Write the structure tokens for this entry.
Amino acid sequence: MNRSGLHACLRWIAMACLGLVLLNTAGCATSESNRLDALTTPEPDALRVRAMRRLSLATAYFEQGQNDVAQQEVRAALQIDPQFAEAYSLLGLIHQRDNAPELAQQSFAQALRLASAASRPAELAAVQHNQAWFLCQQNRLDEAQALFAQALAQPMYRQQAKTWMAQGLCQQRAGRLSEARNSLHTALTLEPNHPIARYQLAVLDWQVSHPSEAQATLAPLNNSAQASAASLWLGVRLARALAQPQDQQRLSAQLLQRFPHSAEAQALAQQKFEVQ
């Protein structure tokens, strides 16, 4: 897997986790407020709605790479609602991106404490997922695996495919390739159209010299609008390894047409088929 593909995958995973957290919180607040008259809504709910607005802004800035502004919005959300676990979880991701692991760990620990006390399993699972991914990036792989397992065990957790995928990437990082394949396969079984899980499973099969299996896994992705420069480039190399010149030419044309300025297109132009 090339560096640009890896960075895209890591960024996507972080964004997916954030979307999950905010979606869960918004759903709880909306369903609760719909059951109550606006004039009698308890103050904690009103505070949470205000804090959610600031956290939504923080998430948008974080997605744009504006860490400083994102952190300001997170802290504004926490000034409104100091018990907002999801805000601490995002703060942990911000510190992680800023290469401040001690601050990230503190934020994730606080998020876990608050989410556990709130007795909302789905939100707790999302926080556990985020911290597990942080631990994986710190090479604290056994701790990460334990937290991934806890997240997957939470009742009413609807984003298991993303957690299985992240766990698979972590296992792959640790060299546990058989476990990684099982996790990625489970993610893909739960969510067949998951582009990252499909791509990563194909990468794993390619790395262990199973090009036919990798091609069968990757083909649905490259035949869809979700294809990326990384997935098309892998498809090109697989077709070349399997002596399929027509498929190689077809995928090469797609790569050059859709992603002409990508690192993968440059590698294709330079015929660097062995570059990972």
Summary: The two ends are 5 Å apart (CA to CA). The CA atoms of residues 170 and 176 lie 9 Å apart.
